[in-house]
From TrEMBL:
GO BP: cell division; regulation of sporulation
Assigned keywords, A-Z: Cell cycle, Cell division, DNA-binding
Organism superkingdom: Bacteria
Domain spans labelled Sporulation transcription regulator WhiA N-terminal: 21-98
DNA-binding is among the record's keywords: yes
Lineage: Bacteria, Bacillati, Actinomycetota, Coriobacteriia, Coriobacteriales
Role summary: Involved in cell division and chromosome segregation.
All residue ranges annotated as the Sporulation regulator WhiA C-terminal domain in the record: 222-304
Protein name: Probable cell division protein WhiA
GO molecular function: DNA binding
Transmembrane segments: none
InterPro entries named among the record's database cross-references: Homing_endonucl, Sporu_reg_WhiA_N_dom, Sporulation_regulator_WhiA, Sporulation_regulator_WhiA_C, WhiA_LAGLIDADG_dom
Segments forming domain WhiA LAGLIDADG-like: 128-219
Organism from which the protein derives: Collinsella intestinalis
Length: 315
């Protein structure tokens, strides 16, 4: 089961917080994945098509529980994608129009409602139920072991912005992006995704996200340390190579025989240990020398070579 399917299934099992929350959840399911047909004689037919068992189960349960309406269910298996397709149909029946008004699909004059109907998102718990239903119906949550991403695919610009506003009202940053004739309400921040799922009641999904974040944090720390160590090694290798070239220049200029003992000690150490950093090189000395002490000896040698070269150029 994908992470999205796990999240949808967990959310579908959340209990309502008040007597009206189920209405809000059902309203969201219908708005996100439902299609309303109107006949010439003023009759209605509502179809909800989904590949998600949690959506089909929740749709049928709430329709029977709240609306007391007849539903027809057709289940087909896609040979190409190896998934089940569920088609729930609410045929034209006496109380269907009242149900559509209750769910905020149409208004009392028969016009379609463009945004999120206020009466199904009037309370804080009902707003959570509406967002929960929208996520169950059209949500996608990326596996937290990869990139963090949550989105809800919806139809209608006004509805998309209203849904984003509901999510933002929960302290979560949500944005709207047009996508192939539809709209995606999306969240990219791992903390915002975790916060939203926690508020909606997906505790298992939140635990998986927190575990994935902890693993990523450890991996990032290890990678940073490895990269820093590699960078230090690269710098040390470059510095050691320049010091060997400096010693070679001393030999070419005939300065090596007359070097003070301290400088000659450095030259021997570097020739014997060409790969060590200055700090490690100092530990090889008897007695041991600090990195700073060796660095100052390098500076003295560089000055001697510069002065000798300048003198030769003057001649």
């Amino acid at each position: 089961m994908s992470f999205t399917a796990e999240v949808r299934d967990e959310l579908a099992r959340c209990a309502p917080e008040c007597a009206y929350c189920d209405v809000s959840t059902l309203a969201a399911l219908v708005r996100v994945c439902g299609t309303l047909s109107i006949s010439g004689r003023g009759g209605y037919q509502l179809q909800v098509a989904t590949e998600t068992g949690a959506v089909a189960r929740t749709m049928i349960e709430l329709t029977h529980k709240i609306l007391k309406l007849k539903t027809d269910l057709t289940v087909r298996r896609s040979v190409l994608h190896r998934v089940r397709n569920y088609l729930i149909v609410l045929p034209d029946q006496p109380d269907l129009e009242k149900a559509l008004i209750l769910l905020g699909i149409i208004d009392r004059s028969g016009g379609l409602v463009a945004g999120v109907p206020k009466h199904v998102a009037n309370r804080a718990c009902c707003r959570r139920a509406f967002v929960r239903g929208s996520l169950i119906a059209g949500g996608f949550v990326a596996d937290p072991r990869g990139d963090f991403h949550l989105e809800i695919a919806v139809q209608g610009e006004q509805f998309a912005h209203d849904l984003a506003d509901l999510i933002c009202g929960m302290g979560v940053q949500a944005r709207v992006n047009p996508r192939r004739g539809a709209y995606a309400v999306y969240i990219k921040s791992a903390e915002d995704i975790r916060r939203l799922l926690a508020k909606l009641g997906a505790t298992r999904a939140v635990a998986e996200i927190e575990e994935a974040r902890a693993v990523k944090h450890v991996k990032n720390q290890v990678n940073r340390r490895v990269n820093a160590e590699l960078a230090n090694q690269t710098r040390s290798a470059g510095a050691a190579q320049r010091q060997l070239e400096l010693i070679e220049a001393l030999d070419d200029l005939g300065l090596r025989p007359g070097l003070p003992e301290a400088l000659e000690t450095f030259c021997r150490l570097r020739e014997n240990h060409p790969d060590l950093s200055l700090r490690d090189l100092g530990e090889m000395a008897q007695p041991s020398l600090s990195k700073s002490a060796l660095y100052h000896r390098v500076l003295r040698l560089e000055k001697m070579v510069e002065e000798a070269r300048a003198s030769h150029e003057g001649d």
